[in-house]
Amino acid sequence: MGPIGKYANQTEGYYIFPKLEGELSNRMMFMGKERLVWSLNNYLGLANNPEVRKADAEAAKDWGLAYPMGARMMSGHTKYHEELERQLADFVGRPSAYLLNYGYQGMVSIINALVNRNDVIVYDSEAHACIIDGMRLHFGKRFVYPHNNMENLNKELARATKIVEKTGGGILVITEGVYGMAGDLGNLPEITALKLKYNFRLLIDDAHGFGTMGPTGAGTDEYFGVQNKVDVYFGTFAKAMAGIGAFVAGNSQVIKFLKYNMRSQIYAKSLPMPMVIGAMKRLELLRDDPSHREKLWTIVNALQKGLRDEGFNLGDSGSPVTPVILQGTVGEATQITYDLRENYNVFCSIVLYPAVPKGTILLRLIPTAEHTLEDVDYTIKTFAEVKEKLNNNEYSKEMKVQVVE
Question: What count of Cα atoms within 13 Å lies in the side-chain half-sphere of residue 32?
Answer without folding.
Answer: 5
